[in-house]
Amino acid sequence: MSKALEVSGLTVVYGQIAAVREVSFTVEAGEIATIIGANGAGKTTILNALCGLRDVRAGTVTLGGDDITHLPPHERVRHGLSQVPEGRRLFGRMSVAENLEIGAYARSDHAAFRADLDHVLELFPRLKERYRQLAGTLSGGEQQMVAMGRAMMARPRMLLLDEPTMGLAPQIVDLVLDAVRRVNREGVTVLLVEQNAYGALEIADRAFVLESGEITLSGHGLDLINHERVRAPIWDMTHDHRGPGPDPVAPSPADPSPARGAGRLSRGDARTGRRGHRHHRARAAGAARADRDRGVLGLGRSADAAGLRQPRDRRPRRHRRVEGVLRERDRP
Prior knowledge:
Elements: E1 3-14, E2 17-28, E3 32-36, H1 43-51, E4 58-63, E5 66-67, H2 73-78, E6 81-84, H3 96-102, H4 113-123, H5 125-129, H6 140-152, E7 158-162, H7 170-185, E8 189-194, H8 197-203, E9 206-211, E10 214-219, H9 221-225, H10 228-238, H11 267-270, H12 274-297, H13 303-306, H14 317-330
Parallel strand pairs: 3-8, 3-9, 6-7, 7-8
Antiparallel strand pairs: 1-2, 1-4, 4-5, 9-10
Helix pairs in contact: 3-6
């Protein structure tokens, strides 16, 4: 099996700080490889160095036998390297179709453009339904599909994905990882950077553990899941050690009166209510996006959309204060 990507002695610095120190690894053609590590370990820095977005202090990057260490980013795209950046980085005021077309900007084989576009829409059928919709109005899972489709429009030999499941619901995470498998089955070599360590290791043929800018462990993904040196860091990266918060205190049946302070507006609402209203609109928009994602999988609506949560009391504060005084006066 030929080498799709070979990195040797890669060192990247920020000022006087070495973010990545003498990193070396190889990815074989047709593989899914993953780099896992805690936040700040240097994962995104490595991808940016591979794409030419970050200068390399030392080391070499070889793509399919060609040294691309000092090539500018657009030339690396022409050599078959594409990246799906962290946070998707779509053009929100442009349509899905326009975002996909931008991915082919470096290509000169215009005759094959339409065939590749049809192929991307076949890989991600949801995008065909949203083809003329503005990218900024899509749900998180749909936007991630657009970002992956845009990268595929460059017809890459090597696809780099930076945190593709970040901020997505668990069901949508499975959908995105399944899309990564489909892209790999098309013959594209994949290098995946993830903090979702379990999900990445489950689909990876090759995995590297990055700690403080250095690769400390490598092997097959499924082998590393149960490795004693990896299990604790995975737990740290995918779970919250703070534990569950205190249970809400409900009024007892014998005392139907609400607890002191119940129904009180937040500090943001006290300031003319503007900040609180912005928060409410943002929360409602997030719930709507989650519902669209659930619609892809045929799941039910969220608790907010289904009306299971009680609406906040948005009456003027003086009305609630008077009601509270009267309630205190009538209490036996």
